[in-house]
Give the backbone structure.
Amino acid sequence: MTESSNLLRVGAVQTNPVFGDKQANQKEIEALIHGHEADLWVMPELALTGYEFKDRKEARELAEEIPDGESTQWLHKLCRDLNCHAVIGLAERDRDEVFNSCIIVGPDGLIGAYRKLHLFDREKLRFDPGDRPLAVYDIGKARVGMMICYDWIYPEVARTLMLKGAQVIAHPTNLVMPYCQQSMRTRTLENRVFAVTANRVGREERDERVIKFTGRSQILSQLGDMLAFGDESHSSCLVAEINPAAADDKRVNPFNDLIADRRSEFYLADPERVRPGR
Ligand code: ACM
C-alpha cells in the first residue's frame, strides 16, 4: 500500500443555517461542499434545525428519530453519492426524550450516534443529557470519535476518545464563547489526535434573545498545528489532508509516551471534591 492511500482528506463545513428550514440548510451544505473532495466531512451542531429553540416542545417538534428521520436519510444519500463519510449534529427524538446528538454516516448508512453529554446554558431547558458512553468508529481509513461543542471544556471527553483509540475527533459546534478554538489545540496536543471543529456563523434572534455564533472552524493536526481555518462571519468549506496513523505515535521523546506514562492509579474517576470554606 502506498503512503498516499493511508491519507485522509477531512473537511469542515462552516454554515449559516436558517432556523427551522431543514431543506434550505441541506442546500447550503450541498452548495458549500460542491467542487471540494473529502473522505470525512464534519458539519456543525444542530446543523439543519438551527440552535435557539424556544422551548423543549419546539426542539421536540423539529427533532427526528435516528436513523429513520429525514436528516439521517439525506446525509446517507449525500455520502452514497459522494462516496464519503460525514458527521453532523442534529436534534434527536427518542420516545419522550430529546437529545442534542450527532451521527456518523457512510455510503452504507448510519454507523453511530452520540448524545451530547455536557449541555450548555439553556440547552438544559430543551434537551435531555446524553446517556451513552463515548465511542470510536472505524471508517476504514481512520478511527473517529465524536464530541459536541461544549464537551470541549471537559478534557476527559477528548482523553476518553483518545484512550478508546480515536485518531480523529469530529467536533460539531455552535460556539458562542471565544475559548474553544485555543483549547482544542491543547486537546490535540495532550492526546496526539487530529481534531475537526465545524462551527457555524450568523445570529439567531428568537423571543428577543440574540445569539451570535463565532465561526473560526478549524482543522488541527495531532500536534496542535492549524491545518485549515474559517473566518468569523462567512459560510465556508475547509479541507486538509492528514495521515491518521500519525495519531498512533504517542511518544513525546525517548523517555516519554503519553499513554505509558499515565499514572492512572492516582487519577480517581470521581475524586472526593475539596470545597474550600466548607
Ligand atoms: C454549545 O455547546 N453549543 C456552546
Summary: The mean pLDDT is 95. The first helix runs from residue 22 to 33.
